[in-house]
Design a protein that fits this description.
Number of strands: 7
Radius of gyration: 19 Å
Oligomer: single chain
Helix content: 40-55%
Order of helices and strands: HEHEHEHHEHHHHEEHHE
Largest sheet: 4 strands, parallel
Number of helices: 11
Structural class: alpha/beta
Strand order of the largest sheet: 3-2-1-4
Strand content: 5-15%
Length: about 280
């Protein structure tokens, strides 16, 4: 199947989803990442104002990500609405078990379902892709509970396919690093608090300001922090370590270390069974 025919198949699939409810209207859980941005642009082309992108704001959502999401929405003109989610009010979420994302996504989809009922949007979709299905994604189980469709995964779209089509469509973040929520940086078992989320956000913003590019995570280990960057950035971080270390101590971390192996997805799962410093 050619890229053009793949895109046409996605457009037909989206149109088919909204025909099922007879209203021709669809709500997208929109984060401003490449997957949901790509889906927003394509769905808007198919549905026009029948597509509503919903951006959830909370302490776990980075301010920098909000700016990116807002810029893309303004550039492509799809309808968007912001809501506030309150996952930090849920003790199950704050306890930070390995299925933390289930509680976060349950909060999101519950609020979007209520909003959809108020506004007349019966179909909910997200940007889950085919690659995500093979990873630790407890949030996807919450999507199933709330009957959320994942058109990209349903049509076997991979991250590589999405990035290439996003590039063709002129979406500026087509090659941007993945940017999951800030809570994904906190070691499982360490309580999620607004203060810890802020430490992570400020730490990553500081490193970006130093020119550190590519994949980047500040892993919050309780009292300490571990910095993960793409392997090609390791030497640059080491070169600036005399600036980085005191800055992180000023953020409230007792100790900070650089992971010599570089960034890798799911690294916190390997630490899940280790004792946590609260």
């Amino acid at each position: 199947m050619t890229p053009r025919s793949q895109l046409a198949a996605l457009e037909r699939h989206l149109a088919g989803l909204v025909r099922q409810d007879g209203k021709g209207r669809m709500m997208l859980g929109y984060s401003g990442g490449v997957d949901s941005a790509f889906l927003a642009v394509v769905a808007h082309g198919v549905l026009g104002d029948g597509l509503l992108a919903v951006l959830a704001r909370s302490a776990s959502y980075p301010e920098a990500q909000w700016r990116v999401a807002s810029d893309i929405q303004q550039r492509f003109g799809f309808p968007m609405r912001e809501i506030t989610t309150h996952e930090l009010d849920d003790p199950n979420y704050r306890a930070n078990p390995t299925n933390r994302c289930y509680f976060c996504k349950s909060e999101l989809w519950r609020r979007m379902t209520v909003l959809g009922m108020e506004l007349g949007f019966a179909v909910l979709i997200d940007g889950t892709n085919a690659d995500d299905l093979g990873e630790h994604r407890p949030g996807h189980r919450a999507a199933g509970k709330w009957r959320v469709h994942s058109p990209l995964a349903e049509l076997s779209w991979t991250k590589t396919m999405i990035r290439e089509q996003a590039r063709v469509l002129g979406i500026p973040i087509w090659d941007a690093p993945a940017a999951p929520c800030l809570a994904s940086r906190i070691k499982y078992g360490v309580t999620v608090t607004s203060g810890r989320l802020s430490q992570v956000e400020r730490g990553e913003a500081f490193l970006r300001a130093l020119g550190i590019a590519g994949d980047l995570r500040v892993r919050h280990l309780g009292n300490d922090a571990r910095i993960e960057v793409s392997p090609r950035e390791l030497s640059d971080v080491r070169r600036q370590w005399s600036t980085i270390e005191p800055a992180f101590q000023n953020l409230g971390f007792r100790h900070v270390e650089l992971d010599p192996h570089g960034y890798r997805r799911g690294s916190l799962l390997a630490l899940a069974s280790a004792p946590a410093s609260r």
